[in-house]
Backbone:
């Protein structure tokens, strides 16, 4: 074993290398069972979800067309928010992970799918599927740790600008899809190990995608209402805002809650599959809730399961979660889960705490 | 809905309103048959033909372009959640509002077995094509020999009805081989055709059962052909059947040619070796060794890509895809050539050097 396995909440402890691999094999076993069982019921699930999402989008836009009437505006905005949340979270994100490629349906193929978001799908697949899911919580490699602007771990050196992070964090939450859109440009690498030409190519892609999105939401659909264009325009704005806030909240609860482990590059070097699985469990945290809540979160409420099995259809996470939890219990691996309020509160606390220098509070407490 | 309305639904404005989805993504939410370009059909009837074959009657949507008698469709069906595509001959001529496909159980064949066991009225299927060069010759020959075996009868049924619709004035001998009466697809239909059309002479051979009066027994042979069809050398032969029958008829044609021989091939090409070089899939950015699979289609699938495909034997053109640059080998005749920006069927081409595929 090349790096000590960190266990959240109890400082650093070691699990024997054989045990780590045994743990990995049990996790693999859980995956195999589900992947060999995929079939009609899963296909029915995603098709039904597509119908609900498309249906609510069409109904929402139709109501917003008549948005001059307050009840129509309210209902239309709600339905459009719902549709955008479902499409980005439970459909788009998961389709782009390849969760539905096994169906061989070109409309659900990770290679072709483009989502209702200003971020181009191919850039998302690079920054998210590859960078974030491979190097999860490795400070310096996983660019989702603070998205290049926030200090989320004591492993990130403190700078004075971080004093303002509670403020600009709020801006990020409200404009989340734009943060996501420009994420893969990797500003900090441009002119260093990333050529300006490559960045410019990406930038043009983002511009093309974003202008189509903006034209649809803020020009074409409002124009259909003629002089009453303001109402659908405002409805689209609020729906995009709702989706931004919701996806921000769910995504920030995935890796920044209290007790989630961050890693250094050294710690994660030359990992075995078992060690990779362990890092995914220790670096992720779940949210508890009902079936509707899980679907609205894109099943990212099962963040741990999603990080272990990013290409498993998300409707299966709920049934594998107890099995994963049982394996974790067996090996004494902490399984971080809680209600949204508690988890999100701890994320906000972290953002405020990390705005200030230091922050290795947990280890000091453990030492004391 | 009228064609005008459909074309209005597929305009730059509707596409912009639906972006980044397609117009179809929304249309199918309301009705699975609605589409601006995809041909789909609803199963209107399922008729048992034999203990292991059924006929499906399909009503296509407005995107179906129509076929020629003898051609096949690439049928897209979902089997346990997985979308599969296979070729099936249309066994009725064009010009009707429904298509008939006859599907026979086929060993482990996922699609055919699924259709025989589970196809239900109301199911929606996708239609690709039509495709196939096995059609009635132009101009119509005066003397035709339709020679078929087993489920090879299906294109013959379409062609015979097409000839009837054209008020054909020549002569057709319809020589069909089947194991037993119970196993014969469209037995009653063939008999009725022979009764109503004086120009059609039905010769039915059952190979594993005593033939009824007027029918015949035994397998195909030169002697039997001379006995049943004395003027076969002057006839234009249309052939479709199992591999064994096709080979025998071909051998005979080499020895003593028929007036002409045309056939439908339902035989996969034999792939002699694997590919070579390095294959790059440009759109997805994936790469693989040409050696790792027989054809470019298999190679793409091994890489987790899901290109369209149908027959997997070079017939239906479903898997046609642009090769931006490279050296490929046609596995049907082992010819190697350089291509640049050319659409090729992935199922019958292998890499013969470095290849870039637009997938």
Residues:
């Amino acid at each position: 074993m090349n790096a000590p396995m960190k266990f959240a909440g109890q400082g650093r402890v070691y699990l024997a290398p054989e045990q780590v691999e045994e743990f990995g094999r049990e996790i693999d076993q859980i995956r195999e069972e589900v992947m060999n069982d995929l079939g009609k019921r899963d296909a029915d699930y995603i098709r039904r979800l597509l119908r609900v999402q498309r249906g609510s989008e069409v109904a929402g836009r139709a109501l917003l067309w008549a948005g001059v009437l307050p009840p129509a505006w309210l209902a239309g905005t709600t339905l459009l928010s719902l549709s955008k949340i479902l499409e980005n979270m439970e459909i788009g994100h998961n389709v782009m992970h390849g969760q539905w490629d096994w169906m061989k349906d070109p409309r659900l193929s990770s290679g072709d799918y483009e989502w209702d978001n200003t971020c181009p799908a191919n850039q998302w697949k690079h920054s998210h599927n590859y960078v974030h899911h491979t190097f999860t919580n490795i400070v310096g490699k996983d660019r989702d740790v603070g998205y290049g602007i926030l200090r989320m771990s004591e492993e990130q050196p403190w700078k004075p600008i971080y004093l303002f992070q509670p403020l600009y964090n709020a801006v990020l939450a409200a404009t989340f899809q734009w943060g996501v859109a420009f994420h893969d440009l990797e500003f900090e690498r441009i002119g260093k190990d990333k050529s300006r030409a490559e960045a410019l190519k990406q930038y043009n892609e983002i511009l093309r995608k974003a202008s189509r999105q903006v034209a649809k939401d803020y020009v074409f659909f409002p124009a259909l209402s003629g002089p009453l264009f303001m109402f659908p325009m405002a409805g689209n704005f609020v729906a995009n805002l709702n989706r931004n806030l919701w996806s921000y909240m769910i995504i920030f609860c995935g890796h920044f809650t209290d007790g989630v482990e961050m890693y250094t590059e050294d710690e994660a070097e030359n990992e075995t599959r078992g060690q990779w699985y362990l890092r995914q469990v220790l670096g992720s945290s779940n949210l508890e809730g009902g079936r509707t809540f899980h679907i609205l979160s894109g099943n990212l409420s099962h963040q741990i399961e999603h990080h272990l099995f990013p290409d498993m259809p998300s409707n299966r996470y709920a049934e594998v979660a107890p099995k994963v939890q049982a394996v974790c219990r067996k090996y004494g691996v902490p399984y971080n889960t809680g209600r949204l309020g508690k988890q999100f509160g701890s994320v906000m606390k972290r953002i405020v705490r990390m705005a200030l220098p230091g922050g290795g509070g947990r280890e000091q407490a453990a030492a004391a | 809905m009228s064609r005008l309305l459909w074309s209005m639904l597929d305009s730059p404005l509707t596409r912009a309103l639906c972006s980044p989805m397609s117009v179809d993504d929304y249309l199918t939410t309301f009705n699975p048959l609605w589409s601006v370009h995809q041909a789909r059909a609803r199963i209107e009837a399922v008729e048992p033909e034999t203990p292991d074959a059924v006929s499906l009657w399909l009503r296509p949507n407005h995107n179906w372009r129509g076929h020629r008698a003898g051609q096949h469709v690439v049928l897209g069906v979902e089997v346990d959640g997985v979308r599969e595509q296979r070729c099936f001959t249309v066994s009725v001529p064009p010009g009707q509002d429904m298509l008939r496909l006859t599907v026979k159980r086929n060993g482990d064949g996922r699609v055919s077995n699924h259709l025989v066991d589970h196809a239900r009225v109301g199911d929606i299927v996708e239609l690709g094509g039509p495709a196939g060069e096995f059609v009635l010759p132009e101009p119509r020959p005066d003397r035709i020999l339709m020679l078929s075996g087993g489920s090879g009868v299906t294109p013959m049924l379409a062609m015979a009805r097409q000839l009837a619709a054209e008020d054909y004035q020549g002569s057709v001998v319809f020589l069909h081989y089947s194991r037993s009466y119970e196993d014969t697809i469209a037995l009653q239909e063939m008999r009725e055709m022979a009764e109503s059309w004086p120009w059609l002479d039905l010769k039915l051979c059952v190979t594993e059962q005593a033939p009824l009066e007027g029918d015949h027994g035994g397998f195909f042979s030169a002697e039997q052909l001379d006995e049943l069809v004395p003027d076969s050398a002057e006839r234009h032969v249309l052939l479709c059947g199992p591999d064994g029958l096709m080979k025998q008829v071909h051998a005979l044609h080499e020895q003593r040619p028929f007036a002409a021989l045309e056939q439908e091939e339902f035989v996969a090409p034999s792939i002699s070796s694997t590919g070579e070089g390095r294959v790059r899939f440009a759109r997805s950015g994936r790469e693989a060794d040409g050696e790792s699979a027989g054809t470019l289609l298999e190679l793409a699938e091994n890489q987790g890509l899901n290109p369209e495909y149908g027959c997997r034997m070079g017939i239906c053109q479903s898997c046609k895809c642009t090769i931006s640059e490279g050296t490929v080998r046609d596995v049907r005749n082992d010819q190697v050539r350089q291509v640049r920006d050319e659409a090729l069927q992935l199922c019958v081409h292998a890499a013969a050097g470095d290849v870039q595929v637009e997938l």
Q: What stands out?
A: The first strand of chain A starts at residue 286 and ends at 288.
